[in-house]
Amino acid sequence: KINKNWELIYYDYNNITKVLLDNNFKFVKEIWNLNHELSFHHWGDSYDGKLFVPGSTSKKYPVEEKFDLGFQKSCKKGMFYFETIEIIDEENGKHLESISILDKISSLKKEFNKRFIINCSDPTHLNDVRVIKNSSIASSFPDGKVGDILLSILSIHAVVLLDRDDYHMKWYTIGKTRNQHSPRIVDEGKMLIFDNDAVSRVYGESQITSIDIVNNKIAGIY
Question: Cβ distance 85 to 129 under 8 Å?
Fold first, then answer.
């Protein structure tokens, strides 16, 4: 909300657009538009004058070793969604940086191969990017910092935290939810996750799972 008006940023496939709306949410003017060669999708976040937005393009098998999450043996041909975090200047719409997901989480290969089936066409399915904005919340994570980036990666049933500076993975939880969305840290040490495919005889297929960040264990199911 800007005085009596509103600013809205929205995605439309290859475009991100920022517009000004009046107090009744009627269109006033376009502020900027960014057209990109990839597709924008799902939820992003805003921090320190920047947008952090999930992006997706395509790559063809085989892939480079640094992008191999363990699917090279079973996925030998065809195309797959290659997902990124796109960083954009919130004020003027300038594209600042792309961060590929697969090379940042490649150390999960050993975990992933133990338990899960690779989705060859969609090996990550990034569906949420959240930036840690509170120092007390950041302190729940190992070497946590304000500005670290929390990701929900649906296809491997994982939530991971990337370092704000070099984007290395410093924390993850995997296999405690299925096809999850929307990890939200509600206080120091606790994270709520919308578990969208729980298949629980007790709690049903959709539930909210609470994760104890420090111990990396389930603290509650709702």
Answer: yes
Contact 104, 153 (CB under 8 A): no
Tokens of 183: 């990890």
* Type of residue numbered 30: E
Q: Which pLDDT tens digit goes with each residue over 177-194?
A: 888 999 999 887 899 999
Residue with tokens 């840290």: 185
Residue of 152, 124, 153, 127 whose CA lies nearest to 63: 124
Tell me what pLDDT residue 115 has.
59
Closest CA to 83 of 122, 130, 131: 122
What are the residues whose beta carbons fall under 8 Å from the beta carbon of 54, sequence distance 6 or more? 40, 41, 42, 43, 44, 83, 84, 85, 86, 126, 127, 128, 129
The candidate with the shortest Cα–Cα distance to 153, out of 168, 135, 175, 134, is 175
User: pLDDT digits over 126-145, tens only?
Assistant: 999 999 999 999 999 999 99
For residue range 6-29, what is the model confidence (pLDDT) as tens digits?
999 999 889 999 999 999 999 999
Judge whether 176 and 194 are in contact, CB under 8 Å: no
d(CA 128, CA 154): 9
pTM (predicted TM-score): 0.91
Residue 1 structure tokens: 């909300």
Q: Are 69 and 169 in contact (CB under 8 A)?
A: no
How far is it, in rounded angstroms, from Cα 161 to Cα 48? 18
Q: 102 forms bridges with which residues in the sheet?
A: none
